[in-house]
Amino acid sequence: xxxxxxxxxxxxxxxxxxxxxxxxxxxxxxxxxxxxxxxxxxxxxxxxxxxxxxxxxxxxxxxxxxxxxxxxxxxxxxxxxxxxxxxxxxxxxxxxxxxxxxxxxxxxxxxxxxxxxxxxxxxxxxxxxxxxxxxxxxxxxxxxxxxxxxxxxxxxxxxxxxxxxxxxxxxxxxxxxxxxxxxxxxxxxxxxxxxxxxxxxxxxxxxxxxxxxxxxxxxxxxxxxxxxxxxxxxxxxxxxxxxxxxxxxxxxxxxxxxxxxxxxxxxxxxxxxxxxxxxxxxxxxxxxxxxxxxxxxxxxxxxxxxxxxxxxxxxxxxxxxxxxxxxxxxxxxxxxxxxxxxxxxxxxxxxxxxxxxxxxxxxxxxxxxxxxxxxxxxxxxxxxxxxxxxxxxxxxx
Length: 397
Fold this sequence. Notes:
By secondary structure, the chain is α/β, with parallel strands linked by helices. About 60% of the residues lie in helices and about 10% in strands. The chain has helices at about 5-25, 30-45, 50-70, 75-100, 115-125, 130-145, 155-170, 175-205, 210, 215-235, 240-260, 265-270, 280-290, 305-315, 340-345, 360-365; strands at about 145-150, 150, 295-300, 320, 350-355, 380-385, 390-395.
């Protein structure tokens, strides 16, 4: 069984965005393009938050391409309007279904993004020192933080633009030249839009601690670079001079084969095509807990990978997780240093606690909440019983 948990969905999203651009660039039938883009954009809206910036860039690209190669007919305008409305409607219906029938999780939400909130965020003069520091860290990462093995975000985009530009100059067919120019224009404009969107997203959607660490940076930026890499390769197909094609393809293969080692992908690729760990924990929770009961999962000093796997295999049980206590290292953006009363209040909403991975920081901070905490074993599920201000633990598995 193939399981995708972290960076691979971001990789897939980059391919989906490229697929939309590929359809627009290669199809002469606007009706075919319309019916192909409709499900693609709907999936895009449902996949991840960054779909909100990719979708309008794809639609705008189709409008410009249609204007260059054909004309804007009334039917085409209807197609654009439908593509702008239907994916949103599908997203809304799916979220309504999830809210009503799938209690354990939510759908892809854009609740924290609005025009009003975005404008306020962009033009606000509050916390200018924090904003300037975040901007400095973000710009530095764009030029220096490698997403691919030897390439940071901006250097890779610049290299792709150079290769596309060289290809355009060597193409003799007028239509193919226009196709290459449109692709290059999209890369430039989309890069600016995506970079600005990500900065605004860090300001709006992340805590100051997470934003200062640029949480998820590799994942979000790899999505865009995958799109650019595939788009660059498809433009090279348009080259009709054999010698130039050999030179450009050799350079591109060198880039793709040697340099496209995505940060973080290697950590998950070994488990992507085999049964990953923590399936047993998920099944144990599902078998021991009632459908109307909830489980709090303690995973100290970890990211969301373990939780995502266990949560998936514990369906339909409601499972939530946390890394309580102070951050374990400078890169730890997941740990939350709750007070004892705060953590006890959180646990009051749950019937069970599963200690998957604990440490001294956790027990020194919260051990007093539990009766006989010295006997607690990791990878074990306990029912929580509140009595006399203490939490008594009854071992289940």
